[in-house]
Amino acid sequence: MQQRHIGDRTVGAIGLGGMPMSIEGRPDQERSIATVHAALEAGVTLIDTADAYHLTAADVGHNELLIAKALREAGSAAHGVLVATKGGHRRPGDGSWYKQGDPAYLRAACEASLQRLDVEAIGLYQFHRPDPEVPYEDSVGAVRDLLDEGKILMAGISNADPDQIRLAQEILGGRLASVQNQFSPAFRSSEPELELCAELGIAFLPWSPLGGIARAGELGTAHTAFAEVAAERGVSPQQVCLAWELAKAPVVIPIPGASRPTSVRDSAAASELELTAEELARLG
What we know:
Layout: E1 3-6, E2 9-12, E3 16-17, H1 29-41, E4 46-48, H2 62-74, E5 82-87, E6 89-90, E7 98-99, H3 103-117, E8 124-127, H4 136-148, E9 155-158, H5 162-171, E10 176-180, H6 191-200, E11 203-204, H7 219-222, H8 224-233, H9 237-246, H10 261-268, H11 277-283
Parallel strand pairs: 3-4, 4-5, 5-8, 8-9, 9-10, 10-11
Antiparallel strand pairs: 1-2, 6-7
Helix pairs in contact: 1-2, 1-10, 3-4, 4-5, 8-9
């Protein structure tokens, strides 16, 4: 698998988003763990999770616990894997979401994630989503403090605009390692953030890179150029989509969600698919 960088860490060019293994429609634990193991076998070394990936209020941190269990059971195969988690976006257990970005909460959330992931320091901790009730600099300042204290090894932000990226980079003293924003053929409005990350050398992690859990299977139907190129290459439209995103900039590391070993293997193979200039022009 191609290699890319987040801060001083080298990771595979395709990551694994853990969300589908923990929210509505999630598979049983056995299949989820098999999915994580299949990702490792395919060369995936970045796994993205969050404390809010769960179903009920009694289920908080389900995905973090699941990822930790899968990695323990993988043994030496999990060596070198970077686990990225997030705090600041919560689910009360009724299917809704709300934002909480005050420093006291972020510190408590980080401490809880440390315990669930069973690590001394979190590899990459990301502020999940801006809270309109809390100054952005206060939220990112809390993440900076966690970084300075060694509770996290790298700091990132998610769902940020260009001004917030620049502000976070300033607050973190040039140590902003990643930006995780939605980006896909159906959602291209994060192109300015992607371009800014490329300019600054910050990893850009597209979430829902295939269009979301419910729409990933319809990618080739909704965007026919991806289906056409896929048919010509003898691969899936999903592979073409991820390869198209990788071609956007060397800082891009898509994190497609998966809940089946077959789908994660297909996604991982995209890192070896090099699209031509003519194909990229057709895809837009």
